[in-house]
């Protein structure tokens, strides 16, 4: 007896009224069970599907700092290079930002010798950095001995503030914040000097160079990513 025959048998049974009622009851119970299992098991599936993990992202930052002094002749250009290797930091160090503080004063020692003109610039290449960042300061010039500061943001999106993120995996967020590519390569600071001679320069051999001091500060960070229990 197949299912169809079974149903027909029940319906066409002598006591068809009661059998039909039993069949209807069976169908109702079956549907109710189906609805129950759907609602309970599917609700869990749906909840799991849309449950999102929350992660805390914490940064710790440290600076590496040093300075150089360059004597640059009139009309000459000198280049200061900086890289992880030159700084002596680990290849995997995560670099956030580089700052060059450039300062000078007339170093000829001649009375009345005015400040020279100094131009500093960073070419947006050589190092993998956030060159499109609008807060970068890539060039400046002065002829009044005022200090100048150039800044390059290296790791895109890094502001150094702890945050909580929703979704994805711990590995995903770890990959986002441990990309060692940023900061790889060598950054070059170009410095050029045009001297302005003083009134007594002709008698003392002239003002044919300038001493430029560059202090560089490189900010690095470490990241810790933790899953926040829901
Ligand atoms: Ca001068
Ligand atoms: Ca000078």
Give me the Rg, rounded: 37 Å
How many strand segments? 9
Structural class: alpha+beta
| Largest sheet composition | 5 strands, antiparallel
How many separate structural domains?
Answer: 2
Give helix % range.
25-40%
Strands of the widest sheet, in order across it, are: 6-3-9-1-7
Residue windows where pLDDT falls under 50 for at least 5 positions: none
Structure description:
- This protein is of the alpha+beta class and 230 residues long.
- The protein has 2 domains: 3-50; 60-228, Jelly Rolls (Sandwich).
- It contains 5 helices and 9 strands; from the N terminus they run ααββαβββββαβαβ.
- The protein has helices at 3-12, 16-50, 84-87, 170-177, 201-204; strands spanning 54-73, 77-82, 94-103, 117-122, 139-142, 148-153, 163-166, 187-194, 209-228.
- The strands form 2 sheets. The chain has a 5-stranded antiparallel β-sheet with strand order 6-3-9-1-7.
- Helix 1 crosses helix 2.
- The chain starts with a helix and ends with a strand.
- 17% of the residues are buried.
- The model has no long low-confidence stretch (mean pLDDT 87).
- The structure holds calcium ion (CA) (2 copies).
């Amino acid at each position: 007896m197949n299912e169809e025959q079974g149903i027909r048998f029940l319906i066409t049974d002598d006591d068809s009224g009661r059998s039909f009622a039993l069949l209807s009851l069976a169908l109702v119970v079956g549907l109710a069970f189906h609805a129950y299992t759907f609602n309970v098991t599917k609700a869990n599936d749906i909840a799991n599907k849309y449950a999102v993990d929350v992660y805390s992202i914490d940064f710790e930052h440290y600076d590496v700092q040093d300075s150089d002094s360059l004597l640059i002749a009139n009309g000459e250009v000198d280049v200061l290079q900086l890289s992880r290797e030159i700084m002596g930091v680990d290849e995997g160090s995560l670099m956030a930002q580089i700052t060059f503080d450039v300062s000078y004063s007339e170093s000829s020692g001649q009375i009345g010798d005015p400040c020279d003109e100094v131009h500093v610039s960073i070419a947006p290449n050589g190092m993998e950095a956030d060159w499109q960042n609008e807060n970068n300061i890539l060039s400046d010039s002065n002829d009044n001995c005022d200090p100048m500061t150039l800044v390059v943001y290296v790791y895109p999106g890094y502001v150094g503030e702890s945050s909580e993120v929703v979704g994805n995996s711990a590995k995903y967020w770890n990959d986002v914040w441990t990309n060692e590519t940023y900061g790889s390569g060598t950054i070059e600071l170009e410095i050029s000097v045009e001297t302005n001679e003083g009134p007594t320069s002709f008698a003392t051999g002239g003002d044919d160079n300038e001493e430029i001091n560059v202090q560089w500060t490189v900010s690095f960070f470490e990241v810790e990513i933790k899953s926040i229990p829901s």
